[in-house]
Specification:
The protein is mainly α. It has helices at about 5-20, 25-45.
C-alpha cells in the first residue's frame, strides 16, 4: 500500500477542516487516524538522524 507523504496528509486534513464537523462515525474515525498519521509522519521527517548516532535514539 502507498504511504501518504506529509504534504498529502496535510492536504487531507485541510479538506476535512473545510468540510466542517461530521456526525458520521466512519468519517470521525478516519479524521482521528489521519491526525495520528500526520503527527507520526511529521515527527519522523523532523528527526535529525545525526542525533541517533551511537544509539542516542531508537527508530
Amino acid at each position: 500500500m502507498h504511504e501518504l507523504t506529509l504534504d498529502e496528509l496535510t492536504a487531507l486534513l485541510n479538506v476535512f477542516g473545510r468540510a466542517g464537523d461530521s456526525q458520521d462515525a466512519v468519517e470521525s474515525d478516519l479524521l482521528i487516524r489521519l491526525k495520528a498519521a500526520h503527527a507520526e509522519r511529521s515527527e519522523l521527517e523532523s528527526l535529525d538522524f545525526d542525533d541517533c548516532l551511537g544509539g542516542a535514539c531508537k527508530l
